[in-house]
Specification:
Layout lengths: L1 H15 L33 E7 L2 E7 L9 E6 L6 H8 L1 H8 L1 E7 L16 H14 L7 E6 L1 H12 L6 E5 L25 E6 L7 H15 L2 E9 L2 E8 L2 E8 L41 H11 L4
Parallel strand pairs: 3-4, 3-5, 5-6, 6-7, 7-10
Antiparallel strand pairs: 1-2, 2-4, 8-9, 9-10
C-alpha cells in the first residue's frame, strides 16, 4: 500500500510539471504546489492572479499577474507608452498583457506624469530611476527569472526604452524600442552617441516607419546604424519582406539587432494622420478614439506586439 501511494504521488508530481497548450515552458523552479506564494511588499499590496492597478513611486502601474506566476520563474515585461498615452492605452495597441499571460510573463504598464496641456501622460529622464525601481520590486516580489526581464516602448516610451537599454543592460535581457531614435531635438538622451553605449551587446528589435513624421526615418536609421557599428554586427539578413515592410537582422555572435522597417501609416481620418508612419503596426484599436489613436491602417503583414513577444522569448539574458 505504501508503494502504491508513493507511486501515485510521483505520477501526480509529473502531471504538475506538464507543458500546457499555450507553448509556455515552465522555468526550472519548484512546482507550484511546493512553492510558497509571493508576499505583498512595498507598493505591491496585492499578489493575487489577475489585473491590478498599483501606485508605485507616485505612478499608476497597471499589471497582469498570470496564474503561472504565483510560482517562481516567470518573466517580466515593462511596457512604456508615448505622449498623451497611458499604460492601459499602450497595452491596448500591443496586447502585451494577453501575450504575457499566454507565455508566462508578468506585464507592467505604468503611466507617466501628466502630459502638459492635454489628456494622457508623458515621460522624462527623471522617471528612469522610478521605472527601474518598479521593475526590481515586481521582480523581487514575484521571484521572476532574472534572465527574462525585458522592456518595450513606443515614441516617447521608445526614447525611454533606448535609454534604459543603454543604462541598465544588466537588468534588461533584451529591448524593443519603436518609433524613436536619437534624442536630439526631442529633449532626450538615448544611446549610441556622445560616448553612450550599453555595458553589453543587448539584443534589440526595432520598429521603424519609413514615413514617420514625428521622429523622422533618418533619425531612426542613424541610431540603428550606430548600434550596428558599436556591436560590430554584420548583415542585413532579410528574414521576411513584402512591398510594405522588411524584417532584417544584423548579428555578431550573440549580439542581435532586428528591425521591422515599414511603410504603413496612420488612418487618413485619424487625429494622428499627419504623423503618417508614426503608428503601431497590427494594432486593432479604434482610429477615431479620442485619445492615443495610433494604429497603422490595415492591412498589415505583421503584428508588432506578437513580434516583440517572440523576440523576448528568443533572447533571455545570457
Amino acid at each position: 500500500m505504501r508503494f502504491a501511494l508513493a507511486l501515485f504521488a510521483v505520477l501526480g508530481a509529473c502531471d504538475n510539471g506538464a507543458v500546457d497548450d499555450s507553448g509556455f515552458h515552465p522555468p526550472d523552479a519548484a512546482p507550484a504546489t511546493d512553492a510558497a506564494p509571493p508576499t505583498p511588499t512595498g507598493c505591491i499590496d496585492d499578489v493575487a492572479t489577475g489585473d491590478h492597478t498599483y501606485t508605485c513611486g507616485g505612478l499608476r502601474v497597471d499589471a497582469r499577474i498570470p496564474a503561472a506566476c504565483q510560482a517562481p520563474g516567470c518573466g517580466l515585461i515593462l511596457v512604456l507608452h508615448g505622449d498623451t498615452g497611458s499604460g492601459l492605452l499602450m497595452d491596448a495597441h500591443i496586447k502585451m498583457r494577453d501575450l504575457g499571460e499566454q507565455n508566462g510573463y508578468i506585464v507592467i504598464a505604468p503611466s507617466g506624469p501628466p502630459w502638459p496641456g492635454g489628456p494622457g501622460s508623458t515621460w522624462n529622464s527623471s522617471n528612469d530611476a522610478t521605472l527601474v525601481d518598479i521593475t526590481n520590486q515586481f521582480a523581487s516580489v514575484f521571484r521572476v527569472d532574472a534572465k527574462k526581464i525585458h522592456v518595450t516602448g513606443f515614441s516617447r516610451g521608445g526614447f525611454v526604452t533606448w535609454r534604459l537599454l543603454c543604462d541598465h543592460a544588466d537588468l534588461f535581457a533584451s529591448a524593443a524600442p519603436a518609433g524613436a531614435g536619437f534624442g536630439q531635438g526631442f529633449g532626450e538622451t538615448t544611446c549610441f552617441q556622445q560616448n553612450r553605449a550599453p555595458s553589453r551587446n543587448i539584443p534589440i528589435v526595432f520598429l521603424m516607419g519609413r514615413t514617420d513624421v514625428s521622429v523622422g526615418y533618418n533619425n531612426m536609421v542613424g541610431i540603428r546604424d550606430a548600434a550596428i557599428a558599436k556591436y560590430g554586427a554584420t548583415g542585413p539578413s532579410v528574414l521576411d519582406q513584402d512591398a510594405k515592410y522588411t524584417h532584417d537582422r544584423w548579428a555578431a555572435g550573440d549580439a542581435v539587432i532586428e528591425t521591422f522597417d515599414h511603410a504603413y501609416e496612420n488612418y487618413p481620418t485619424s487625429d494622428f494622420a499627419s504623423a503618417k508612419g508614426h503608428c503601431i503596426v497590427g494594432s486593432t484599436t479604434d482610429p477615431t478614439a479620442p485619445q492615443y489613436a495610433i494604429p497603422c491602417q490595415p492591412p498589415n503583414a505583421f503584428i508588432w506586439g506578437e513580434q516583440v513577444m517572440q523576440f523576448f522569448i528568443a533572447h533571455p539574458m545570457p
